[in-house]
Amino acid sequence: MPCTHGNLGANAQNRRLRMSLVALLVGLGLSVVMMQSGAPTAARWVLFFPFFSAAFGAYQGLYRTCSFAAHQGVRLADHGEEVVVDPAERDRMRREGRRVLIGSLATAAAATAMVVLLP
Length: 119
Description:
4 helices; 2 strands; mainly alpha
């Protein structure tokens, strides 16, 4: 379920969503090229990186949470960086940041595994 609070302003959220689309297109394009050229199975594991970038950007945009900023306890607002002083809010942001990172890793691993395991 997407977060309604997050630690990203609208501009940062939109940048991450756009970046995720570019990374997804790169990953899918490389997948097609590798499959059509008969690239070895082990070489296809490199697709994890564009798939991770795509998933990470998408989850950050959807949850409005930057994992790295959450870990540092800051909010990336449109007018600049703000330190979050409320301990409960910092903890919530850090939990969401971990959720974004873990979800991105799992999504990238699943997408990569599909490309690697296809004949």
